[in-house]
Amino acid sequence: MEENRENNTEKKESTNVDAAGKKEILESKPQANPVSKKTVEEKKKFSFNYDKHYKKLLLIPVILMLLSVIYLFYFHSQTGEFIIKDISLSGGTTITLTGGLLDKNLQKLEQDLKSQYGDVSFRRLTESTSGKTLTFVIESHANADELKASLEKILGEKLTQENSNTEFSDSALSGNFYRQLVIALIISFILMSIVIFLLFRSFVPSIAVIFAAFSDIVMPLALIDYLGIKISAAGIAAFLMLIGYSVDTDILLTTRALKKQEGTLNERIYGAFKTGIFMTMTALAAVLPAFFLITGLPDSFRQIFFILALGLGADIINTWLTNASIIKWYCDRRGIK
């Protein structure tokens, strides 16, 4: 009997020891997935903040858009136009100096011509490494013979085919060309709007995409007018290109939010944001170096790159603040989760 009691006591003690050891081992083990819990909490926090403030974010692009529209109408009241047209759109004379004429005192030439012609403008094409002037371009609405005679008098040298190039565009032809470009821009925008309505077949999402695309044109245009940049035919073509660039990310966002079923609404918007912002940054990485680093490009190319860069920058605001907020509101009202 005593031996049995001792054996039972030993078994209980060993069981207690084993249980205590297992408990220590379990307590010493790290938690199964503390990182995943933290990630989930961060996602919840992000989603909560976005759900709370997305309507406030919409105010930023709306205010920018209103300021742009107000400035454009103010600019039109002062100049009679919504853009500053260069010679290719308004008509006039372009004289390009090359060769030995570049060794003349070009600063004195600018001053003397400005005193004679109020609308004259100058552009230099320089070498990227040395900064040496390769060509000197003079533009004015004056008659070609009159401007050429003034240049020869100031420079003290006759303009020939070896040291210069003279181009004249009639104001009537240039004006007609400008009207055709504007009509093409309007028709392209209307056709784009029709395609958007056929694609989504819903008023609010379609209007959100169209409004964002319209803002991508208006905001850069207002900034260009403010900077006093003259727009050429190439600039109008750049605005045509912006219509296609701007709707890409808007269609991506709207399609992901309305037609996809995987994940929550915020997750779908965030997924579209990651893809769309990568697309936009890739395009900016292509056009910005070409504008700032390659100085030998023609001015028409540089203007296209500059307008595209402005439009892509505006597209970031209008897609991910304007369109995303409207789509978020629309989905909440329709119960789309």
Question: What does this protein structure show overall?
Answer:
The protein folds into 2 domains: 56-86 and 172-334, Up-down Bundle (Multidrug efflux transporter AcrB transmembrane fold); 92-169, RRM (RNA recognition motif) domain (Alpha-Beta Plaits). Helices cover 73% and strands 9% of the residues. It is built from 11 helices and 6 strands. It has helices at residues 2-28, 34-57, 59-79, 87-90, 106-116, 144-155, 171-200, 203-227, 233-259, 265-292, 299-334, and strands at 84-85, 92-97, 121-126, 133-140, 164-169, 230-231. The strands form 2 sheets. Strands 3-4-2-5 form a 4-stranded antiparallel beta sheet. A two-stranded parallel sheet has the order 1-6. Helix 3 (59-79) crosses helix 8, helix 8 (203-227) packs antiparallel against helix 9 (233-259) and helix 9 packs parallel to helix 11.
